[in-house]
Amino acid sequence: xxxxxxxxxxxxxxxxxxxxxxxxxxxxxxxxxxxxxxxxxxxxxxxxxxxxxxxxxxxxxxxxxxxxxxxxxxxxxxxxxxxxxxxxxxxxxxxxxxxxxxxxxxxxxxxxxxxxxxxxxxxxxxxxxxxxxxxxxxxxxxxxxxxxxxxxxxxxxxxxxxxxxxxxxxxxxxxxxxxxxxxxxxxxxxxxxxxxxxxxxxxxxxxxxxxxxxxxxxxxxxxxxxxxxxxxxxxxxxxxxxxxxxxxxxxxxxxxxxxxxxxxxxxxxxxxxxxxxxxxxxxxxxxxxxxxxxxxxxxxxxxxxxxxxxxxxxxxxxxxxxxxxxxxxxxxxxxxxxxxxxxxxxxxxxxxxxxxxxxx
Amino acid sequence: xxxxxxxxxxxxxxxxxxxxxxxxxxxxxxxxxxxxxxxxxxxxxxxxxxxxxxxxxxxxxxxxxxxxxxxxxxxxxxxxxxxxxxxxxxxxxxxxxxxxxxxxxxxxxxxxxxxxxxxxxxxxxxxxxxxxxxxxxxxxxxxxxxxxxxxxxxxxxxxxxxxxxxxxxxxxxxxxxxxxxxxxxxxxxxxxxxxxxxxxxxxxxxxxxxxxxxxxxxxxxxxxxxxxxxxxxxxxxxxxxxxxxxxxxxxxxxxxxxxxxxxxxxxxxxxxxxxxxxxxxxxxxxxxxxxxxxxxxxxxxxxxxxxxxxxxxxxxxxxxxxxxxxxxxxxxxxxxxxxxxxxxxxxxxxxxxxxxxxxxxxxxxxxx
Lengths: 360, 368
What we know:
The complex is a heterodimer of chains A (360) and B (368).
Chain A (H helix, E strand, L loop, with lengths): L6 E6 L2 H9 L8 E4 L8 E4 L1 H4 L9 H7 L4 E3 L3 H16 L5 E5 L2 E5 L10 H16 L3 E6 L2 H8 L7 E3 L5 H6 L11 H9 L7 H4 L2 H8 L2 H9 L15 E12 L2 H22 L1 E12 L4 E12 L2 H12 L9 E13 L6 E2 L7
Parallel strand pairs in A: 2-4, 7-8
Antiparallel strand pairs in A: 1-6, 1-7, 2-3, 5-6, 9-12, 10-11, 10-12
Helix pairs in contact in A: 4-5, 12-13
Chain B lengths: L1 E6 H12 L13 E7 L2 E7 L3 E10 L5 E6 H10 L5 E7 L2 E6 L2 E8 L15 E6 H11 L14 E7 L2 E7 L3 E8 L7 E6 H10 L6 E6 L3 E6 L2 E6 L18 E6 H13 L7 E7 L2 E7 L5 E7 L1 E2 L4 E6 H10 L4 E6 L6 E5 L2 E8 L2 E2 L1
Helix pairs in contact in B: 1-2, 5-6
C-alpha cells in the first residue's frame, strides 16, 4: 500500500460576502447577501456569517432571505473582483506545492505530502497557508487536513469560519463514526432519502448494508459509497484540472412566455458559451440545454453532433433545436441554461470539416 | 363484387409507385395499407405516411359503381410481383376480404375500411403554381439532393429549401459543412414562396420523376407542396423551420481558380479515398502552378499520392477536404470540366461548372 498522503482542502469563508465586507467597511459586522435583487427573483450567491445566523443560505431565493432577515444588506455580485482575489489565494497555495486543484473560485485541494516548503507536518502547512491568506488578503479560510480528498473536504467544513480540522490517519475511524450519510461524497438530499429508506442513517451503516440492496437503491454509486464508508478515497489531486464543461444560465425577473423571446435567450446563452469555448480553445462534443418552468420543474436535453464544435452559429442552432424537445413557450419559463460538455482541446480534435459560416 | 379485372402489370406499376413511402414500422396499422379506389371508370391506388401522400391512377378501364377499400400494400405488391408477367388478375370484394384471382391461384386478404384511411388536408393560403418538364426537375433535384443532412438535430437541414422568386425556381441543400445550390428559369410570374421539402419527399420524388419532356405540375403553398406528373400525384407536408441564409455562404468568385477535367479528378479522388481515414475521410489538395497533388493517408500510415495536370495560376495552397463531399458533387454534375476557386486554406471553396451559372457548390475545408 502507498504511504499515507497528506491532503489539505482549503475553503474560503463566505468568500464573495467576505470580499465585499473587506472592500466596504460599512458592510462589516452586518448581515449581508451577495446576489440578485429580491424583486427580480434573484438568488443568494453568498451570505455573510452575520446573515447565516438568520438562516440565510446560498442558493436561497433572495425574497426568502429578506423575509428571514429584514435588515439584510444586498450587494450585486462583482465576479471580476472575486476572481482577482481567488487568483491571489491560488498563488499562495501554489507557493507551497504545484499540486493545487482548484474546485471553484473559493475552494481547492492541495497535496502537501512533499511540498516546496519542506514542511513535514501538514498541520503546520495549513496554519501557514491560513496565516498568509489572512495577511495578504485580509480574508479567512477554513482548512481540512486528512489522508485523502474526501476526508479533507469534510474536515474543512467541520469548524467554520477560520477553522482548522486535522484528521490524522489513526483518527479516521473515530471521525467516520460520527458522520451522517449525507457526508458521503456524491450523496445529495435525494440519494440520502433513498438510503434512509433502506435503513442507512449513518455513514458507517453503509458498510454493513446488503450489497445487492444498496446497488438496487443507488445503482453504480454503491461500490463507491462502500469505499468511502471505510474512509478510502484514492482520487489524486489533479493540478490544472481540465475543464469538464462550460455553461451559462439565467433566472429571469419575469417568466418568459413568448417562444420567440425564449429562443433568442437560448441563442444569447449559446453564444456566450461559444465565446467562452473560443477563449479557452476548446470544442464541445455535446450541447445541453436546461429549462426550468415556472413551477420549478426542470428538464435538460442534450445533443451530440458528428464532430466537436465551438462555432457559435452551430452551438446556437443545436441549442435552439433542443428547445423543440421541451415545452418552453407552451409553458412559462423561469430559467434557461446552455452547456457545453465533452470538451476537447484543439490538439485532441479529430479531423473534421469546418462549418459553413451561416452566422448566428 | 368484382372491383377490377386487369393485366398484372397494369396493377403492379401504380401500386409500386405509391408503396415506396410506406414505413415498415408505425403506430397506425392502416398506414401499412394501400387505398384502392374505383371511381369514374378508373382505378387508383393511394398510400400515405401522414407526411407524404402518393396516389397513382392505373391506365386500365374499371367501370362500375364507386367503391374503395384498403389492404396490406406489401403483401399485395409481393403477390403481384410473384405472379407471371402478363397474368390476368381479378380483384373481388367478399365479406370484408379482398379476393385476388389469377389463373389457378387464389389469395384472400384482410381489408380495413376506406373511411378510416387518413388523407392530407387541402393546401391553404396563397399557392404558387408552375409547370416544368419532369426531366428538368429531376435534373435540378439531382444537382442538390445529396447535400441534404440526414437526421441532423437541426431538423430543417434534413430537407431541401425550395424558393420561388424572380421568375426562378431555386433549390438549396446543406448539411452545415457543404451546400449545393441550383436554379432554373420559370415561365410565369409567381407569388414568392420559400418552403422546406422533407428529405423523404425529395428522395421519393426523384425516384418517381421520369426522364421525359412531359410536364410535372408543381403547387407550393405555405403548408404543402404538390407534384403531379403522369398518373402520379404526390403531396407532402413541409418542414416547419427557418432554413439558414444560404446567400451568406455562397462566395463571389475567388481569385485562385482551378479548372480541371471532371472525370480525371473524380477517378483520382476515388483512388486516393481508399487510403484516407475511413471515419474522417480527409484528403489534402496541394496546389502549385498548373499542378494538383492529392494526398491521403490513414491510421496505418499508408499513403496515396495522385498528381494531375490542371489549369491553375493562383497562390500555392495546401487545403484539406472530406473526400466524400468532393465525390458527391463530381458524381452529380454533368459537364466535362469543373472549376474550383479558393480564397485560402481556411475558407470555403466554390465549385462550379464553367458556363453554367445555375449551379454552385460550396464546401468547407477540413482540418487534417
